[in-house]
Structures
1.
Amino acid sequence: MDISIIVPLYNEEESLPELVEWIERVMNENRFSFEIILVDDGSIDNSWNIIETLHSGRDYIRGISFRRNYGKSAALYCGFNVAKGDVVITMDADLQDSPDEIPELYKMIKDEGYDLVSGWKKKRYDSKLSKNIPSKFFNRITRIISGINLHDFNCGLKAYKSKVVKSIEVYGEMHRYIPVLAKQSGFKKIGEKVVQHRPRKYGTTKFGMSRFVNGFLDLTTITFITKFGKKPMHFFGVVGTVMFLLGGGIALWLIARKLYCISNGIDFRDVTSQPLFYIALVTIIIGVQLFLAGFLGELISRSSNERNKYFIDKEI
């Protein structure tokens, strides 16, 4: 099969028939073998009934329905698990992503050898204050931290080699950082394509301002996991050791200064009456705790089933 198209959705009953018809037209015009996987993320409208109607007589349309709303990451993860196509395309269900982009995305994966191609909505129709400006800020921060030169990490329109989606685990709100997860798994040829962004035709956006706070927290998480997930002692141990040595050095200096004053008959303050001593004591305690946190992290990591999960690219 050439292409699997995964469409996560939540309360999109109005747009689904038009979207599926559009995808079918593009696929048939380009003579692709394909499947459409519609993942209903706990919709409370008529979306699932629409999916059942669309599936009738069309075996290439598949549906997955959640009992409740779990989020876009969960929907993508389940879609990735069941996808059978050589190339996997993800897109949103609100008609703001254009299926006309699919043939060129497919070509970039199959002919140009990209592992992942992310869409870039260079011209957007969203609110500049609530979406555009925060989005540009987080994209810039993610570029700096991850080293991946993309302008729009959160674009729903993406194309992947099949082995990419089978090698990554998307959870929480990590769908925003799928390129970072792909790079972590060894897929380094990541490209970008300017894609059309269409005005919303039906309904309203499902995302609020809280997504930007969650996005920052998820970026912090994925950055730590990417660099130190398999070696927590390299982070906690180093920071803990530095703090322990710093606090210990200050304490020894205070004690040595007191002994010097005593031996030379110089007036001095008791060590315990100086605020610097308590700062040194707290620094030592925090340093020990961080070191122990790294040690416990290593024990947990080494006993984890994921410890030796590596991604094999080729076999003979």
2.
Amino acid sequence: MDSFSNKHKIFNDPIYGFVSLPYEIIFDLIEHPYFQRLRRIKQLGLTNLVYPGALHTRFHHAMGAMHLMCLAIEEIRSKNHIITEEEAKAANIAILLHDIGHGPFSHALEHSIVNDVTHEDLSQLFMSRLNEEFKGQLSLAIKIFQNKYHKKFLHQLVSSQLDMDRLDYLKRDSFFTGVSEGVISSDRIIKMLNVVDDQLVVEAKGIYSIEKFIIARRLMYWQVYLHKTVLSAENLLVNILKRAKELAQKKVDLFCTPALKIFLYNQYNKKDFKDKSDLLDAFANLDDSDIMASIKVWSNHKDIVLSLLCRQLVNRRLFKAEMQNKSFKKTKIDKIKKAVRDQLHLKDNEVDYFVFTGNVENDAYRGDKISINILFKDGSVVDIAKASDQLNIAVLEKTVKKYYLCCPKEYGEVNPRF
């Protein structure tokens, strides 16, 4: 690289304004094809089918989280805590790459065409590969990412219940969806950060901002991430990929981009990704366009199940979704399944692609995980659920489970008494 190249670039972020890249290696990592791929993966998957503005990418989010990490490190240093330049650089690398393992429509992919491989597993594999390319310069970042570094608060900035990842995605997702309930004061929260006994804490002056953060997270989950129509769309995509995988395993000819074909026509697990060096590069070639281009073509496939599911997604004819606090009665599910099976002339094993149930959980705050601790002037440190004078924070510690039932809209009201 030309020694006169300026790698300390700035970019204009719609959330934070002008943001600087703090280290030359950050520029080099951003320029790498593995990271550039994140430009082609939407942050919120199919959520734009409900909130049309939700078209921002994982690239946007990773850059924003890195910016917040810079601010957090600067704030903690200002309170006389030592963070060396190498540690600061490593923490920035860790947060920049924390989502690099996400595939297109990540969770749909994890539940359909790859087996037992999460985006967290893939992130670590990508970071290890990059560490080899960068001759060990990511070793400390990987230790922080894996929580194996002795300064535990650095990992908490990357992954905890109050990390830079959550601070960015709540604010960013709120902005692009237009759901104002998700707006949080990330600047205020970061200004209140401190460290006690190697643990990240929030000074008592920031307690109301933390309360707002926890409530905003709960509301964003119900209104955006777990919105019933979003769940309907995501499950439709999961079923499309499952059906395509099923046909591929039977050697049925399917149009696929080369990257997608590798994973549809083969069975790979976590061990395969570790043992086959070229498999990670194949995964790195997958993005949203591979999936959507294939689905458009499959809309005219001779397999009626696959083609119908694909047309529903392409034309936004999503499943009707009901959501309630208790599981649905089997009599109701069976009644709808029979109507759908008879109307569409489906086999018994095919109707489950069109009528299905599931459940989702919303735990806005988990006191049993790395808790959010409040630092008072007398030096005492108290969990937010106990420190808050709002009773609903303690209530939000409880995990809320809801059940959903999805089916084609015209069958959603079949004998509703059941």
3.
Amino acid sequence: MQRILSREEANLLRQLLGEARNVVVLCHKNPDGDAIGSTAAMTLLLRGMGKRVTAIMPNPAPDFLGWLPTADEILLGDRQHLKVDNALQRADLIVMLDFNTPSRMGELLEQKVMATDAPKMMIDHHLNPDAPCQLIISHPEMCSTCEIILRIMCDMGWHLHMTADEATAIYTGMMTDTGAFTYASNRPDIYEAISLLLTTGIDKDIIYRRVFFTHTEGRFRLLGYLLYEKMEVMPEIHTALITMTNEERLRFKTKNGATEGFVNLPLEMEGIKLSIFLREDSEQKGLIRVSTRSVDDFPCNEMCQDFFNGGGHKNASGGSLKMTIEEAIEVVREALRAYEERLKV
């Protein structure tokens, strides 16, 4: 694999880590597999260097990621306020993972983090990083933040001592951010990276089952209901739309995060190139979460930037709307009209 760090970046990274003793590692709100995987991998890596590391996420991760190494130690910014405040006060380095702007941490945690005097580092694969950091390692061409962490480890020689727990966390982030390597994963060096991870003795098949084969009966029944009752298919523009309210989620006794991956399913239908999933936020009333997935050359990140206050990758993006679900559906229809000609192709 080719190096991704410049000489200047490598020297600054070495300097920041060399001067740090108490490190805080952070990921974005509503964390996914790449967020938790990169947080776990970085926590383990820095502890192996003798650092005291506290990991923080703004709110809970989905249950199916709770088995990851160190996941049960991560502090919750929306609940464990005193422990979070203490960790930030003593931090002499803050590492921000898998987000490109501090607002992705949520307003409360963003204010606390950015008010500290600790040096800050950002490692991310989203477009247009924007944060006051001493070091930003940004590679949007990478499939995941976890891949970037592995590539950094290789550049710095740290991969020679990589543990199976570190490799498990990295593989999980790479796998989940590519839909089990079904999109954003055509680069040959991704598979070089996987081969390297496998040398630590991890079992990628067990990791896959732990992520994708641990769902509840309620989740399956909710999925069936949404596909049968709530999915609208628009074959003329190769698009499918699914919507879900909190009342529907509660009816099937499912927790927040249970719908992870639902947005991908309509793309399995012949002719569908764009899938949109709208759901009411389970914690913030009046907020609609928007997830989009696409295939081929349709840029759902552009649609999310233009209409859903979001962004992301070309084939996997998201956003949010402060309105009712009915109003959000109308915004989706407006977006589809704007992109109609590109969707018809």
